[in-house]
Design brief:
Layout (H helix, E strand, L loop, with lengths): L10 E2 L5 E2 L3 H15 L4 H13 L9 H11 L1 H15 L6 H17 L13 H6 L4 H16 L7 H12 L2
Antiparallel strand pairs: 1-2
Helix pairs in contact: 1-2, 2-4, 3-4, 4-5
Length: 173
């Protein structure tokens, strides 16, 4: 857990329940400082920081769209690590953790089988296709991010014709 819990300044509510607000941000910053002083590789430092920052995300109900977006952002290995980190963090506090962990691992396996580990560069259409439709510059990036979001939420398929049709309808150029 890399001393992440050192960042927990706690606050007690009326009911006597302690809460550790924003500890994930403070913990991620502390981890970055420690790992930087240890002169570890930047990629490793970035990965550890990202996992610590996002570890609270999995405590809430995670929609398929959010889960697929996390997979796209983090990749399979790092999302697996995030699930493991969150499980270890929450394991001492909650009896539902094992079920949640198993569900998250199963969802990750299903998402990979459905090829949901995609970035904007993996979409069926590219910048040239959008230029041919008359789009330029930042519009292209925004449209590709929109298409990725629609794909990850399973509203459209990663299919060139379907994506071009969606772009023509939504952006009407």
């Amino acid at each position: 857990m890399l001393r992440r819990d050192n960042a927990q300044s706690w606050e007690v509510q009326e009911k006597g329940i302690a809460h550790y607000k924003t500890h994930e941000i403070v913990g991620a910053d502390m981890a970055r400082d420690i790992l930087t002083r240890l002169k570890l590789p930047v990629k490793l430092i970035d990965t550890v920081e990202d996992i610590i920052k996002k570890h609270m995300v999995l405590y809430r109900d995670v929609t398929d769209k959010k889960f697929n977006k996390l997979l796209s952002e983090m990749g399979y290995d790092n999302l697996w690590r995030l699930i493991e980190h969150s499980n270890a963090d929450n394991g001492s506090k909650n009896n539902e953790v094992v079920n949640t962990e198993n569900d998250l691992h199963e969802r990750l396996k299903r998402a990979v089988e459905k090829q949901m580990q995609v970035t904007v560069n993996d979409l069926a259409i590219n910048g040239k296709d959008l230029i041919e439709l008359g789009f330029t510059g930042t519009e292209i990036g925004q449209i590709k991010r929109d298409l990725l979001d629609k794909y990850l939420s399973e509203e459209i398929q990663n299919n060139k014709e379907e994506m071009l049709e969606y772009v023509k309808e939504k952006y009407k150029k």
